[in-house]
Design brief:
Radius of gyration: 20 Å
Largest sheet: 8 strands, parallel, barrel
Order of helices and strands: EHEHEHEHEEEHEHEHHEEHEHEHH
Shape: globular
Number of strands: 13
Length: about 375
């Protein structure tokens, strides 16, 4: 255990899960929960994460889902170590309102808050937002992240940007520094040039979808170079991987289940699997294009789900025994990935299975020998 009571795994790497935060049952084939957004269901998942060695979970976000911040606050009140990675959108929030809410929850939970900034398209008109082209969207996101961080770390902040303005703003309560942690980490994703420039200058953690090793390696190198070229004035950018991990007792059983799941996806024409706008985002299109390179890339990166309706983290899957998947995750770790957000369905059952069978293999000694 680490000094703060968390399970320490893999020499500084952190392993989180994914809670879909959706009102409709059957998300990505999870038919086990009749009421997926009930407090009982969500609490059971958060407590299982604590009990099985996970650091916390990414909470899905989007108009038509339960409000992510409210869910995070409720789960934080019912847990002791669970760290919510709260997905939020500039435009849905204004920076000062968001900074105050996040600072409050962070203080109440003893520093458990993490934030995932989402700039992808959403039903903006439904909540009164609007946006211009891609350049405008990411310029607004850069301002949002810069101003939020200032509000967390400075007092009497005055900011006159193109998109946001505050005058003499001091957020209360103040965020308590905890060791090297001055404020919640800001996670960010995106593969377009505009997104990568935003991440290189403003994010704390860049999240990648489940691309092959060569693609992730190339993107890490490019982001590091961008950070230098754009005179990043923050600590070095960290990197994370958001991916589906289908783990079974044996390699053969895992592939049989993976192929059966894809067959069911094809039968349903992907209904319930693709909750990301497949034709819009550069990163999503990169994933969809992988199938042209082969159905299985690297050792066990399965691309067929994207062909039959998988979107986002369900576009590609790491498939295999606990040893197979641990070995693959180690290769991403060797590239510089330190933040892992994993998932499979049924969500609750897989929290327990992968916490029991996969996470122990991701400690340094065993993983090195795998």
């Amino acid at each position: 255990m680490s000094a703060d009571g968390h399970l320490a795994v893999d020499g500084g790497s952190e392993f989180l899960w994914y809670i879909p935060n959706t009102v409709a049952p059957g998300h990505r084939g999870d038919d086990a929960e009749e009421h997926p957004s009930s407090l009982e269901t969500l609490t059971a998942q958060a407590l299982a994460l604590e009990d099985h060695g996970w650091r916390g979970a990414l909470l899905g976000s989007g108009w038509g889902r339960p409000d992510t911040f409210t869910v995070a606050a409720a789960l934080s009140a019912r847990t002791t170590t669970f760290e919510p990675l709260i997905a939020i959108r500039p435009g849905y929030w204004r920076p000062a309102n968001f900074a105050a809410s996040a600072a409050t929850l962070d203080e109440l939970t003893g520093g458990r808050v993490r934030i995932n900034i989402v700039s992808g398209q959403d039903n903006l008109a439904a909540y009164g937002d609007s946006e211009g082209d891609q350049a405008q969207r990411y310029d607004r996101t850069r301002e949002f992240m810069r101003l939020t961080r200032r509000l967390w770390t400075e007092e009497d902040v005055t900011f006159e940007g193109e998109h946001f303005q505050v005058k003499g703003s001091t957020v209360a309560p103040r965020i308590t520094p905890r060791g090297e942690r001055r404020h919640p980490k800001l996670y960010f994703g995106g593969a377009s040039e505009a997104a990568e420039r935003t991440s290189a200058t403003e994010a704390d953690v860049q999240l990648f979808w489940g691309e092959p090793l060569d693609g992730v390696s190339e993107r890490i190198a490019r982001l590091k170079a961008l950070s230098r070229d754009l005179d990043r004035d923050l600590p070095p950018l960290e990197f994370g991987l958001r991916i589906t991990t289908l783990v079974r007792d044996t390699t053969e059983e895992a592939w049989a289940d993976a192929e059966a799941k894809v067959a069911e996806m094809a039968k349903r024409q992907g209904q319930g699997w693709g909750d990301h706008r497949r034709s819009k985002a550069v990163g999503q299109q990169r994933l969809l294009d992988l199938h042209a390179r082969g159905e299985v890339l690297d050792d066990n990166l399965y691309t067929a789900p994207g062909k039959f309706g998988g979107g986002g983290a369900s576009t590609t899957w790491l498939v295999g025994s606990p040893q197979d998947v641990a070995r693959s995750l180690k290769k991403y770790r060797d590239l510089g990935i330190r933040h892992f957000v994993l998932s499979d369905t049924p969500y609750l059952a897989e929290i327990k299975r992968q916490g029991r069978d996969l996470l122990p293999l991701l400690r340094d000694k065993i993983l090195t020998e795998a």
